[in-house]
Amino acid sequence: MLTSVHNDLRQIFTDYSDVYDLVRKVVKEHNSLSGSGTSDNSTGNSLGVTVKKDLSGAKLGSEAVDFLASVAVKYSGKSGSKTLANKALVKKYGQDKGNDLYKKIKKYL
Predict the structure, then answer these.
(1) How far is CA 68 from the centre of its chain?
(2) 89-98: per-residue pLDDT in tens?
(3) What's the first-to-final CA gap in the chain, in angstroms?
(4) Angle made by CA atoms 67, 75, 1, in degrees to the nearest 5
(5) Is the dihedral of CA 18, 20, 21, 22 positive or negative?
């Protein structure tokens, strides 16, 4: 989730690092207070690592691989996950490239 937030903030703000640091701090505090997030977070991290590992040889560039991993983690297991992921990729990369990238992460959704 934090990767997705980071990428979104980077697209919106010129100086995104201050905002991201605040968001990251709030998330860490929430996780430590609630005691939750361990199983879902580790599942998300595991999925993100798997996607990155599988796509590492695809010659996409690290930014694209990171974004694909964050999209897979964000939408995996949600209702309509494939449609939501495809829309996010098409929005960022355009119709043709977005659809091609979607095919690479479709199996993780």
Answers:
(1) 6
(2) 999 999 999 9
(3) 15
(4) 60
(5) positive
